[in-house]
Amino acid sequence: MSGHSKWHNIQGRKNAQDAKRGKIFQKISRDLYQAAKAGDPDPANNAQLRLVIDKAHAANMPKKNIDRAIAKASGIGGAKFEEVTYEGYAPGGVAVMVSALTDNKNRTASAVRSAFTHAGGSLGASGSVSYMFDRKGLIEILRDGLDKSEDDMLMDALDAGADDMKATDEKFQIFTDPSSLTTVRDALQGKGYDLDTAEVTMIPQNRTAVPEDKAKQYRHLIDELTANDDVADIYETGILPDDED
């Protein structure tokens, strides 16, 4: 039995690692699509696309996955993909926005609605929760190997045109107006910084504590949405009980 348990534990860890890797690939695929869609699908002429491709390589994303995401943006293969946003409430009254990239809106809408229903949440109309988020440009720079104090990093970020910065133990998070993201990104790269993230995202204005008796349902909703291949990003205001200080 001990041998079986050991195999079971190893298999469980492997499945968890595969799921985490899948989520990372899913987000990078979305970023590749958006970068190629917004600019030239040729990386030689698209700095943002080169940045995302570098991130894909660092995550050991297969070349076929990278090529497929770029092909979606350029319309190769005939399928037309659309960006769609869904809004709703998770258990405990937590606001959730779901950004999807799909070639079949009916399929995606049905799957997202089912995820909310299964978890005891509810899907709302457009605009029902988006007002609780601010659209911001986000640049992240990892602190590992970076010989910069928070004050120096902040000065460089402000000089580049950023609005604000937040420092954690792992990284510097630099916030910009969405229209200034490219300018700030290019300025920081010009100063020699290696960027881990440069994207437009949704930042919650406030956080909502998830009631302890709703935490399992809340996790189930996020897990089901994340497992959906059409879902590119999930923005939510929730704080789980074990996330609180």
From TrEMBL:
Q: Tell me, what is an example of a GO biological process annotation in this record?
A: regulation of DNA-templated transcription
Taxonomically, the superkingdom here is Bacteria
Q: Which Pfam families match?
A: TACO1_YebC_N (PF20772), Transcrip_reg (PF01709)
Determine if Cytoplasm is one of this entry's keywords: yes
What UniProt keywords are attached to this protein's entry?
Answer: Cytoplasm, DNA-binding, Transcription, Transcription regulation
What Gene Ontology terms describe where this protein resides (cellular component)?
cytosol
One GO MF term attached to the UniProt entry: DNA binding
The entry assigns this protein to a family as follows: Belongs to the TACO1 family.
How is this protein named in the record? Probable transcriptional regulatory protein FD32_GL000512
Q: Which organism is it from?
A: Limosilactobacillus panis DSM 6035
Cite the source lineage: Bacteria, Bacillati, Bacillota, Bacilli, Lactobacillales
